[in-house]
Give the backbone structure.
Amino acid sequence: MNIRGEARQVLDQLEREDRLGVVVLGRPYHNDPGVNHEILEEFQKLGYPVFTQDSLPIDEDMVWRLFGPEVESGEIPHPMNIDDVWKNSYSENTSRKVWAAKYTGRHPNLVALELSSFKCGHDAPIYSVVEEVVEHSGTPYFCFKDIDENKPTGSIKIRVETIGYFLKRYREDMVANKNKVKSIEEQMAEFEARLRRQLMREKLHDEGKVRDSFDTGAMPTIHVSLGALAASKPAAVREYETVSGD
């Protein structure tokens, strides 16, 4: 099994357990603990699985679940396209980072963590793009920009713990909202089932009346008032005089 297959298993588990995972939006070198200052390890210690851009599952059912509505509406030609948010594709890594941001923003169990080691480097043109893509969907977005080897490790750990506290509250709200929606759906399903049973009883009752009429040789009595009968009488046909010519 490759890395994407393993990531799919983890992502499926997050969905089943209503948990969160962190997607790293960065360059390939940000997977190096010496470059990322072990930020990713700190999140894993807090219980949040970390997904790199290259590990995001791209199974057909997954990408169509996330991007299918946009393809059907004509916003993008296929799920891997980013022209709707970034047309200046001058770098493969940049394009992959933008697409991973779109992926994260569309999956309810993922949050975004952007890393950048050069504040005014090749990531600068897409800072706002990545942030807007993620936050537009209501997905939490966090960033560590301009990280370098002399960044104080203590301050990084404190910030990771702060983010962890926020994610804990975010997950609680996510589960509560999901249960609320589930409760509403269950109530609607129960009401629909009750209504169907009532209609079925009325139908069977009416069919029973007709069946009894055939058994007794008489149709059921229909009560109609005189007023209703008079109102249903067709209007008299007006007679016109004939006019003959000379």
About this structure: Helices lie at 3-17, 33-36, 39-45, 60-73, 92-106, 127-136, 153-216, 226-231. The mean pLDDT is 84.
